Amino acid sequence: MNLSSTIKSIQDIMRKDDGVDGDAQRLGQLTWMLFLKVFDQREEEWADDNPAYISPLPKEYRWRNWAAYIPGADGKKKPQIAGSELISFVNNELFPTLKEIDANKSPQHKVIRSVFEDANNYMKSGPQMLAVIEKLEDAINFHDFTIRANIGDVYEQLLNDLRGAGNAGEFYTPRAITAFMVDRVNPRLDKRETVMDPACGTGGFLTAAIEHFRNQLATMKSPRPEDKRAIEALILGIEKKQLPHLLCTTNMLLHGIDVPSQIEHKNTLGIGWNEWKASGKVDCIITNPPFGGYEDDGVGSDYPADLRTRETADMFMALIIKKLLKEKAAPRWYYPMDSYLAMASKAR
């Protein structure tokens, strides 16, 4: 069974579970499990490269020690936790621990905390969760570079399917638009130009920027190791809501951003006007912000009088021009397309 078919079969298993209601919940459930599975396999690689590596996860809550199947006495693989006990373990031990990880210890701790602080386990059936885990164990081997190359495309299709999942579709911008906008802005790796999406949703513009930087890296005559390492520091995102933040963080991990701690889980518009510092300004902003949205009373009340508005897209535009872009910057593209509103800006 190929990877795409495996993901579809996992979704079918979840449809049988009374606790998982709708495509958005299925995607959220699959994504936190996929995140822990991929993170665990990346940890194996990090430990190989650095014997002094210390996991941000307590030993008993690493995927390999509770979810991964192990050989039984008869040689057949078996689960480490029985189906009858699994849901209790996830709800009463795993999630409470991950939600309380100390984010100040390291960037990796911050990633784990931000991913799980508002995440939920929707599944109620232990045997069905075991079936999902078994599928992930069989299909997802991140050490296999063929699978690693393909999983990003499969994940992209899952995000594309999110467009039909009610209001959750607002967090996804089609790849054709994200790639076009990044190409037009053309952030430069050799100049170490930072790219931000202050309403990053599932991370489409940011993954397009990562691919854009890597294409530039491939054409450099004499690329240095620091050129490759620089990409991670040049990608910045902020997302208000839990599900798209989880999807974006996992998206970054699947695209080779090992510690996506610069994908922040907060409300961009809820940050005070004067809290933005000049030192945090960036070179490029590419975004598809929510328009016609709603914010709590008081959000934006400290904007300058001539910039105050209740329209969220206009609030983002004011913030981008006045606070987020480096000096001598102006919007280069304001690109409406059907129901999409995309903005791309670059400091000049």
TrEMBL record:
Give the GO molecular function terms.
Answer: DNA binding; N-methyltransferase activity; site-specific DNA-methyltransferase (adenine-specific) activity
Question: What biological-process terms (Gene Ontology) are attached?
Answer: DNA restriction-modification system; methylation
Q: What class of enzyme is it?
A: transferase
Transferase recorded as keyword: yes
Checking InterPro entries in the record gives: D12N6_MeTrfase_N (IPR022749), DNA_Adenine_Mtase (IPR051537), DNA_methylase_A-5 (IPR003356), DNA_methylase_N6_adenine_CS (IPR002052), SAM-dependent_MTases_sf (IPR029063), T1MK-like_N_sf (IPR038333)
Q: Which domain of life is it from?
A: Bacteria
Q: Which residues form the signal peptide?
A: none
Give the Enzyme Commission number. Answer: 2.1.1.72
Keyword line = Methyltransferase, Restriction system, S-adenosyl-L-methionine, Transferase
User: What reaction(s) does this enzyme catalyze?
Assistant: a 2'-deoxyadenosine in DNA + S-adenosyl-L-methionine = an N(6)-methyl-2'-deoxyadenosine in DNA + S-adenosyl-L-homocysteine + H(+)
Q: Which residues form the DNA methylase adenine-specific domain?
A: 151-325
Q: Does the keyword Magnesium apply?
A: no
Residue limits of the N6 adenine-specific DNA methyltransferase N-terminal domain? Answer: 3-134
Assigned protein family = Belongs to the N(4)/N(6)-methyltransferase family.
What is this protein identified as?
site-specific DNA-methyltransferase (adenine-specific)
Classification from the root reads:
Bacteria, Pseudomonadati, Pseudomonadota, Gammaproteobacteria, Enterobacterales
